[in-house]
């Protein structure tokens, strides 16, 4: 059996086909494509129409190569963002990007209606202006016509699944990023919706990883050249990435390293103490049914923004070279990566330079200096979060698993081990696709506790860094 994993990141997406033989997973990247944000009329949108064409292209290629051997399709994306459908099931507008400015200052307005402590006791999420609940509340306050005309709200992976199957659902792990799901009952929270005047009627049935959403519609089967079931996976990409980790004990934490760094631990139940609230942790759903208690940290977005600037100036931005130069750099400057000035500045270089000047630190001079500054700053933040996690969860952390694209940055891994004092296990790079396919294979009965997944081959290597 073959399984299609459609993985959408904030910067790019890909369609990967996975197959399992004697417990060993083989991956075949069928299709890769960019994901862009479009500024239009004062709003920042995702180009959903283009992304939908890309997933169809990937599935079509998969059917052309593997035919009827394809068992199912799983879709994962970044969190919080959504699309709205009208009563006829048509997309009302392109989904707004979480980096849009419409939610600036919204937290204080929401807390006037629903106090922060009460809010946290219900949803258990970290308070970030980009969360779905605050995107919706800002739309309510501005009298958004799209919201008024909407019949359904679907998170990004749910939206792709809907147009492939015509069944509307809200998958659990992605729903748990919205700050509208009650962390204990795992149902849409009436108090949050009623207090903030949000339209609860838009929300759909919450389904769990491993649930069959539906088969491809007849039209899709004809267009794509085959049929397969669309299965709910850990449709929040971090949930899928976490599903790829196999640990021998419970003294470990994870970092899903990419545009964002999501650092946390796994607990059987939500943790909603004052200490957890004060530390800005979030409780989100895991594929296993457990809770991911984690913190969202600005990640390699810092470096991605610098590279974008340098590329626009015609400068060479070879990543491997910059890592090597970063390892040789003597730059010791550190920035607070979670500071709002680094969220979406006009120039990331200027924001970093200005902070260094203000704090009497040396200003980076070379690309290698900036690489080291970013990695050093992230590792410093990881060390701080590690201590907060240990206090909140009540368990020590001896090993940190770093998964995702950022796990390839050896300098960041090395500095993380040094700053945290933990053994760092980096990889697999393809953790999100692996976790996505793993859930599909479990749903098909091909994997179980007795028949676990064995990771070997390209994209599945592990590297260890000692403190």
CATH superfamily of the largest domain: ATPase, nucleotide binding domain
CATH topology of the largest domain: Nucleotidyltransferase, domain 5
Q: What is the CATH architecture assignment of the largest domain?
A: 2-Layer Sandwich
Give the structural class.
Answer: alpha/beta
The largest β sheet comes out as: 7 strands, mixed
Unreliable spans? none
CATH class division of the largest domain:
Alpha Beta
Determine the mean pLDDT: 95
Query: Helical stretch count?
Result: 17
| Cα separation of the termini | 42 Å
Radius of gyration computed on alpha carbons: 22 Å
Q: What is the approximate shape?
A: globular
Total beta strand runs = 19
Main sheet strand line-up: 15-16-14-13-17-18-19
Helix fraction bin: 25-40%
Proportion in β-strands: 15-25%
| Number of separate domains | 2
């Amino acid at each position: 059996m073959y399984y299609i994993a459609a993985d959408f990141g904030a910067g790019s997406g890909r369609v990967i086909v996975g197959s399992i033989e004697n417990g060993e997973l083989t991956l075949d990247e069928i299709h890769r494509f960019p994901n862009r944000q479009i500024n239009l009329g004062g709003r920042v949108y995702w180009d959903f129409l283009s992304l939908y064409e890309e997933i169809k292209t990937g599935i079509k290629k998969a059917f052309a190569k593997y035919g009827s051997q394809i068992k199912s399709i799983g879709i994962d994306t970044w969190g919080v963002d959504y699309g709205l459908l009208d009563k006829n099931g048509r997309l009302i507008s392109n989904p707004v990007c979480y980096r849009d400015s419409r939610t600036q200052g919204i937290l204080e307005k929401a807390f006037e209606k629903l106090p922060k402590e009460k809010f946290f006791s219900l949803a258990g999420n970290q308070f970030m202006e980009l969360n779905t609940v605050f995107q919706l509340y800002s739309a309510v306050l501005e009298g958004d016509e799209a919201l008024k005309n909407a019949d359904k709200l679907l998170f990004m992976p749910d939206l792709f699944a809907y147009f492939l199957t015509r069944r509307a659902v809200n998958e659990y792990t992605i729903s748990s990023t919205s700050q509208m799901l009650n962390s204990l009952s795992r149902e849409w929270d009436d108090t949050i919706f009623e207090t903030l005047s949000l339209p609860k009627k838009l929300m759909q049935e919450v389904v769990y990883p491993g649930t069959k959403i539906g088969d491809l519609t007849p039209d899709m089967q004809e267009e794509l050249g085959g049929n397969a079931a669309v299965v709910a996976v850990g449709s929040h990409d971090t949930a899928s990435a976490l599903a790829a980790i196999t640990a021998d004990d419970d003294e470990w934490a994870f970092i899903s390293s990419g545009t964002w760094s999501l650092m946390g631990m796994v607990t059987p139940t939500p943790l909603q103490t004052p200490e957890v609230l004060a530390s800005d942790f979030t409780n989100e759903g895991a594929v296993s049914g457990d809770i991911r208690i984690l913190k969202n940290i600005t990640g390699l977005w810092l470096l991605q923004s610098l590279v974008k600037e340098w590329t626009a100036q015609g400068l060479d931005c070879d990543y491997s070279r910059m890592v090597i130069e970063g390892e040789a750099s003597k730059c010791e400057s550190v920035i607070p990566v979670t500071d709002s000035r680094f969220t979406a500045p006009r120039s990331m270089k200027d924001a970093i330079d200005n902070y260094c000047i203000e704090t009497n630190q040396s200003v980076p001079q070379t690309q290698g200096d900036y690489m080291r500054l970013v990695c050093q700053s992230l590792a410093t933040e990881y060390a701080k979060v590690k201590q907060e996690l240990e206090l909140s969860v009540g368990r020590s952390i001896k090993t940190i698993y770093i998964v995702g694209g950022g796990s390839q940055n050896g300098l960041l891994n090395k500095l993380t081990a040094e700053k945290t004092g933990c053994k760092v296990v980096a990889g697999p790079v393809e953790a999100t696709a692996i976790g996505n396919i793993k859930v599909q294979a479990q749903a098909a009965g091909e994997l179980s506790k007795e028949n676990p997944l064995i990771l070997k081959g390209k994209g599945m290597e592990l590297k260890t860094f000692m403190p």
